[in-house]
Specification:
The chain is built from ten helices and nine strands. It has two domains: 2-160, Jelly Rolls (Sandwich), CATH 2.60.120.280; 163-271, Arc Repressor Mutant, subunit A (Orthogonal Bundle), CATH 1.10.10.60. By secondary structure, the chain is an alpha+beta fold. The strands form two sheets. A five-stranded antiparallel sheet has the order 1-8-3-6-9, covered by helices on one side.
Length: 272
């Protein structure tokens, strides 16, 4: 049972205003606890691989005890460094924690009113007031926090990278009636600008990738299900089954009906 639970060790809020607030994680020893530390006011510094960066308000830093990183109050600052933090361990949480750091780095945006900041505040408040129903609730909230952080970082990445978001739309929304001009408007760019950027990154225009994605899915449905051609066409983003059949034949060299009959014949022969 403990293998899928997360354990909250300590959390709280603090205010620091002198250079005595300094920690070297190499010497914290013991378990390599995961720490999420969010700046509420002022700033702190964070050092990794010889590089010093600042963790400003509406940002959080993710680190572990026993690793080669350091953090603390910058001696020239006048404003107090206000923070809240949580320390935890647990297989599910640690896996999500490392995925976030590997993908997005140690310092992340976490604005006051974002969902992850609200969850983190709730964890600290419940712990300080002894309001957790049990360790299961604490475990769930830690995991919810990490998944929320991961989602928010991914959404921010898409907002900053419309070409990547277009790629994700093609991969996961190919069954919809996609209009490239409408998608471009949705992403706040012209169709021509997105198409150029997409082709430069992926080697083919977005329309061609969409066609490939739909055709691969259609082939899988025809070969692995009992759906009709009309049902298959709808599940691949085609409102008209005739248009779908023509596109399929142009792509594969044979019609979906021919593939359907061939696969059924193969199954019958195998049974004999």
């Amino acid at each position: 049972m403990n293998s899928f639970l997360n354990r909250l060790f300590v959390c709280g809020r603090e205010s620091r205003q002198n250079a005595s607030y300094y920690f070297d994680n190499r010497y914290k020893g013991g378990s390599s606890r995961c720490v999420i530390q969010r700046t509420l006011g002022g700033r702190c510094f964070f050092e990794q691989d010889g590089e010093r960066r600042f963790v400003e308000s509406n940002q959080a830093v993710l680190f572990r005890h026993s690793e080669d990183t350091r953090y603390g109050f910058f001696k020239d600052d006048k404003q107090a460094y206000q923070l809240e933090f949580i320390e935890f361990l647990g297989d599910p949480a640690e896996a999500a924690f490392e995925t976030i750091r590997d993908t997005y780095g140690h310092i992340l945006k976490m604005p006051d009113n974002c969902e992850s900041a609200i969850i983190m505040q709730s964890i600290v408040d419940k712990q300080n007031k002894s309001k957790f129903r049990d360790h299961l609730e604490a475990s769930q909230l830690i995991y919810d926090l990490l998944i929320c952080i991961l989602r928010e970082q991914k959404e921010a990445e898409y907002n900053e990278d419309p070409v990547l978001e277009l790629h994700e739309i093609i991969q996961f929304r190919f069954h919809e009636d996609i209009c490239m001009k409408s998608i471009a408007n949705e992403l706040g760019h012209s169709r021509e600008h997105l198409t150029r950027g997409f082709k430069r990154r992926y080697g083919i225009p977005p329309g061609e990738m969409l066609r490939q994605r739909r055709m691969r899915h259609a082939q899988e449905l025809i070969s692995g299900s009992k759906l009709s051609i009309q049902q298959t066409s709808h599940r691949c983003g085609y409102a008209d089954s005739n248009v779908f059949s023509r596109a399929f034949k142009k792509y594969f060299g044979h019609s979906p009906t021919e593939l359907h009959k061939r696969d059924r014949s193969t199954i019958r022969d195998a049974k004999l």
